[in-house]
Amino acid sequence: xxxFALAVLVSAVTAAVYGxxxxxxxxxxxxxxxxxxxxxxxELEPYHAAQLRQEATEAAAAELVLDGYLxxxxxxxxxxxxxxxDPARTPAHPLPAALLEAVRRHDPEPVSIGWIARSDEEYQxxxxxxxxxxxxxxxxxxxxxxxxxxxxxxxxxxxGIALVMLFWLLAGALLVTGRPQGLREGALTVVAALGxxxxxxxxxxxRTVRERTDPxxxxxxxxxxxxxxxxxxxxxxxxxxVLRSSADLDTWRGVDxxxxxxxxxxATDEDDEWLxxxxxxxxxxxxxxxxxxxxxxxxGTDAAPGAASPSSG
Length: 313
What we know:
By secondary structure, the chain is mainly alpha-helical. Helices cover about 75% and strands about 5% of the residues. It has helices at about 1-40, 45-50, 55-65, 80-85, 95-105, 115-120, 120-135, 150-175, 180-200, 200-210, 220-225, 230-235, 235-245, 260-310; strands at about 70, 80, 250-255, 260. The strands form two sheets. A two-stranded antiparallel ribbon has the order 1-2. A two-stranded antiparallel sheet has the order 3-4. A hairpin with a 5-residue loop joins β1 and β2 (about 80). The protein is rod-shaped.
């Protein structure tokens, strides 16, 4: 009789533990399948994918270089070509068109692409508007149920784990101390032992369910799957120049000079120090000149009595 009651209780507790795990697997499998279907239906525009990878400005610069609107020198300075200065010629896509207009606003002064991306407000606004427009087309992916953030569910889970552990200890003690009589009680004892072993594997089963139903980052994988065609079409030399100009965020290039923002502050400090040194030298010169005048006056005073003594004799 004790083996029968023990087998029934262990089977009931095991079912109560694995029931939520099975329900979690069913819900997560449905969400995973729906997420993959939504992402499979997404058709990302190359510039939108580049913007999600933080490479939109580089891709736009690459297209302008390929189409002959820009040329970039070895220091990363971007110059308009004759075609780039023609107001009647503009790229069809809004991002390279916005970048070309930004370079035109600085013409004839060369400017780095990175400086425009960081400091040109109009270009930033047009780039953000394009991002907002394209992000609105993306599907809203369902949230994967994981129970995180639900304090009540967390407390219930902790309490359930504590009760299951206590039950497992008691049932294990009864199972070890019991002496089954006959084949029927032996079979019930085996059922109870298998149930207790299954309870030990419940935590691992939950982790396995989460791992196998995790969709990962399918949208991110889609974004990273292909490079922008303009960047891919560049040869190694022009690609290096585009990336160098895009990475230069702090340099403003004038017609004949290159001025760094940090260098401006250092130059100002150096000018102040030079003025201080100049004032110090001027003061020192005045002090020295006044000392020489005093020495001359004193020498003239000393010489006067000496000159008068022969005449008195």
